[in-house]
Structure formats: structure tokens, C-alpha cells
Design goal:
181 residues, alpha/beta, five-stranded mixed beta sheet, 4 helices, globular
């Protein structure tokens, strides 16, 4: 019998000073059995950093055709494709062919430098691609903070996310490995 995803809800209260966006987003997250709490909360952080009424989570970690998050235009074209992890450069190349912008949030303090060194030349050629790295400490703190039904406040200024919840707070500033051209 296959294990099913766990459904969790949380409210993201966003104040994005960079984009002048102030809004609450009720989020429903499907967590695949193989997805860690840290990765799930990275999806929430990526949502906050790219928040839009049309931004949606992909079908999940086990679906190769979808990104982790995406923003589709009304005509069905893909404006933003957002990935997490250290995917194969061919996947990112295909994403750049389908979307106006592609953002990767890489994680794994030990794995990312090795992955980046191996694939940097191929990734540098992708003009639509931005690569950001989120450190393991921030991801772990977010994972420990998660409670189903929680309210997460997020203030974004100069690309840094200040997150707070009932029992704590955290500043997260993803490091830029590559900016889109």
C-alpha cells in the first residue's frame, strides 16, 4: 500500500516591502512521505519570496513535469518556474525553454558546492536562470518551527525574509550563486 501525502495548512502573513505587497495567504501544503519538514518549509519560504495570487505549488516531489512552484499567466504560459534542490542541468534547461524566469533554491551545505562546481559552466549559459542557496541552519530552524495550522509572519526587505511565529523568529537571506541576465 502506497503512503499518502500529509496535508497541512498554514497562514502566511506577508509584508513584502520590496514589491509593496501586503497580504495574507492561506496555504495548503501536501507533503510527500519522502519530503522532509525542512524542504516543505523551504517551499513556504520560496512562496513568500515570489508571492502572487496566481503562484501555485506543483503536484509534488514525485512529479517530474511540474516545478515545486509556478506562476502561470492567464494565457497559460509560464511566467515563473521555481525549483528546489540540486537538479540535473537538463531539467533547468528545459524549464528555461518553458518559462520566462526560472529560480532555483539550492540547499545542502555540503552538496551544493560540489554540485555547483560540477555544473556551473552549463548553468551560467542559461540567461533566464537565477540560483540561490539557502543554508541548512535556516532550513532546520524553519522545520522545527512548523506546526500545522500555524501563522507565519514574513517581512521581506532587500531580498531578506524576516520570519516570525509564536515561539521565535529567523532572518533568511538566500545567497546568490547566479543572477538571471
Amino acid at each position: 500500500m502506497a503512503l499518502k501525502s500529509t496535508i497541512s495548512r498554514l497562514t502566511l502573513q506577508l509584508a513584502d516591502l520590496d514589491r509593496q505587497l501586503y497580504r495574507d495567504f492561506p496555504l495548503t501544503l501536501a507533503r510527500h512521505p519522502s519530503e522532509t519538514a525542512a524542504r516543505m518549509m523551504l517551499r513556504v519560504l520560496a512562496f513568500a519570496l515570489h508571492a502572487d495570487e496566481q503562484l501555485a505549488f506543483g503536484r509534488g516531489i514525485s512529479t517530474d513535469e511540474d516545478p515545486d512552484l509556478w506562476l502561470r499567466n492567464l494565457d497559460g504560459t509560464i511566467d515563473s518556474w521555481i525549483e528546489l534542490g540540486t537538479p540535473d542541468p537538463d531539467r533547468l534547461k528545459r524549464a528555461c525553454g518553458r518559462a520566462a524566469r526560472v529560480t532555483l533554491y539550492a540547499y545542502g551545505d555540503r552538496a551544493v558546492p560540489v554540485w555547483w562546481k560540477r555544473h556551473q559552466a552549463a548553468l551560467e549559459r542559461l540567461d533566464k536562470l537565477s540560483v540561490m542557496q539557502v543554508d541548512d541552519g535556516a532550513m532546520q530552524a524553519l522545520a522545527e518551527a512548523f506546526q500545522p495550522g500555524m501563522t507565519l509572519q514574513c517581512t521581506i526587505s532587500d531580498g531578506e525574509a524576516m520570519l516570525s511565529w509564536d515561539q521565535g523568529s529567523l532572518a533568511v537571506a538566500p545567497a546568490t550563486l547566479k543572477a538571471a541576465a
